């Protein structure tokens, strides 16, 4: 997201930044770039192409950023926390996420800053800006690896704890080299490269974002319908409303759900780009609130019906549960509908998350480049291809989506969503923090650090015990 801090003059045949002033000399264009300038500006120079994004389109883009792969792991958090405590924690994380986004918007407005990175640069200098860019790169790279893992699980199948879960292609055509995970993910990676290589404005994705949200709702409707049918038939046991705590290790295990819940609400890196493209930027706060209410409703309903349906058999990626007879009419057809709809959903969400990943990668490694990324086609394609290659490799070598959620949620995601915004409020370089702002910020930092340190310890301990079990 970084562009040069000094004004520069380029020839007319090169594309100017959107924040520019034309000189009377038609041969040059001046770009007054600075740390507060967004990489992708609000409007194009041509009045016929883009006059500002609508509120509905912005709601869809932000909601799609939030409802990604996180929804698939939320039912598994109910297995850890229990249904009652799990729903309460989902609602609490949503409220805290809204508070942190409000902090970012409040301080960026006060400082005249048009990006999260610019705000971090104002408050903590270049080191703070680089730290944010690094965290967004780690978080988004991890999230997109999760997307690819889930796509691989759905389309090509997966194996867990000695059990093989066939994917769609294997179920339809049997086991072949072209239904295997490596080939399927390669085709998926190449298939998404074309739209990604041409995406230079977020609002252009508002239609696909609406479709992505609709597909997530289709998944929810089918899931709820199956659960309600089985409840009415009396074939489902009562779910646990509280966690199953037997010893100190089971207490520590509760905290492993926190990184997954944090990751599910991370949208902070796309809030400023969405606001910058709005026809009326003052609408961003109600857009954030509407999006969070919509996503929280979908999250709670998915967690509720998913855990009721599968209970303690709920897997880290609930889509993997949809590969056998569910005990309802048209079971296998419903399985395919669920998996196909969510695979398409993830492919439509992918560009939104990749958008921020590419911009922050460019800002982190190519901040000295003369042209913004949107006007340097070679760099644009090169960064895109390099990132997609890393995502492809990660999806083939990381064992499960749950493992990836634990890593990104306990590290980069908690910094982006909670620690950095709270630190901005405590540092208060603009002198606008109230006492309650600082108290809330301190509490958020304390809770975030404690919960994630415990989660990392619990995951490391469980991994150590798992690796030691065969030796014993």
TrEMBL record:
Keywords (A to Z) from UniProt = Amino-acid transport, Membrane, Transmembrane, Transmembrane helix, Transport
The UniProt annotation puts the region (Disordered) at: 1-39
GO terms for MF: L-amino acid transmembrane transporter activity
Where found, per UniProt? Membrane
The GO cellular component terms are: organelle membrane
Q: Where is the composition biased (Basic residues)?
A: 10-25
Q: Where are the transmembrane segments?
A: 52-74, 80-105, 137-158, 178-199, 211-232, 252-271, 283-310, 340-359, 380-398, 404-426, 438-457
- Residues forming the Amino acid transporter transmembrane domain are 53-428
- Signal sequence, start to end: none
Q: What is its main location?
A: membrane
Annotated membrane topology is: Multi-pass membrane protein
Name this protein carries in UniProt: Amino acid transporter transmembrane domain-containing protein
Source species: Ambrosia artemisiifolia
């Amino acid at each position: 997201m970084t562009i040069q801090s000094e004004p520069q003059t380029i020839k007319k045949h090169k594309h100017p930044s959107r924040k520019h002033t034309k000189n009377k000399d038609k041969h040059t264009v001046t770009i007054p770039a600075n740390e507060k300038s967004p990489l992708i500006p609000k409007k194009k120079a041509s009045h016929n192409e883009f006059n500002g994004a609508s509120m509905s389109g912005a709601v869809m883009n932000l909601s799609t950023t939030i409802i990604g792969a996180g929804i698939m792991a939320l039912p598994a958090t109910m297995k850890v926390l229990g249904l009652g405590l799990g729903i309460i924690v989902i609602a609490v994380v949503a409220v805290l996420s809204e508070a942190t986004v409000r902090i970012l918007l409040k301080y960026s407005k006060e400082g005249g800053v048009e990006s999260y990175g610019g705000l971090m640069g104002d408050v903590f200098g270049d080191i703070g800006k680089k730290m944010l860019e690094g965290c967004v790169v780690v978080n988004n790279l991890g999230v997109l690896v999760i997307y690819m893992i889930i796509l691989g699980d759905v389309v090509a199948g997966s194996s867990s704890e000695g059990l093989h879960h066939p994917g769609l292609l294997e179920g339809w055509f049997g086991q072949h080299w072209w239904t295997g995970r490596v080939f399927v993910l390669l085709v998926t990676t190449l298939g998404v490269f074309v739209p990604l290589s041409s995406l230079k404005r977020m609002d252009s994705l508002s239609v696909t974002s609406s479709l992505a949200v609709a597909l997530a709702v289709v998944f929810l409707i089918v899931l709820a319908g199956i659960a309600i049918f089985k409840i009415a038939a009396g074939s489902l046991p009562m779910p646990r409303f509280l966690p199953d705590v037997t010893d100190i290790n089971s207490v520590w295990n509760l905290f492993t759900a926190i990184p997954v819940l944090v990751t599910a609400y991370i949208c902070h890196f796309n809030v400023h780009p969405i606001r910058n493209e709005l026809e009326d930027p003052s609408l961003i706060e109600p857009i954030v609130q509407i999006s969070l209410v919509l996503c929280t409703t979908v999250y709670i309903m998915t967690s509720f019906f998913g855990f009721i349906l599968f209970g303690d058999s709920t897997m880290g990626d609930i889509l993997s549960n949809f590969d056998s007879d569910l005990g309802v009419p048209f079971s296998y057809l419903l399985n395919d509908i669920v998996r196909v709809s969510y695979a398409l959903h993830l492919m439509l969400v992918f560009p939104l998350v990749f958008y921020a990943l590419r911009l922050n990668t460019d800002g982190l490694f190519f901040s000295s480049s003369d042209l913004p990324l949107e006007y340097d086609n070679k760099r644009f394609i090169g960064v895109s291809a390099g990132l997609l290659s890393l995502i492809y490799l990660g999806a083939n070598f990381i064992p499960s989506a749950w493992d990836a959620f634990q890593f990104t949620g306990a590290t980069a995601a908690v910094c982006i969503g909670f620690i950095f915004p709270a630190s901005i409020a405590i540092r208060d370089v603009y002198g606008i923090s109230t006492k309650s702002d600082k108290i809330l910020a301190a509490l958020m930092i304390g809770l975030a650090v404690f919960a994630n340190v415990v989660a990392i310890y619990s995951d490391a301990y469980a991994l150590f015990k798992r690796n030691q079990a065969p030796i014993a």
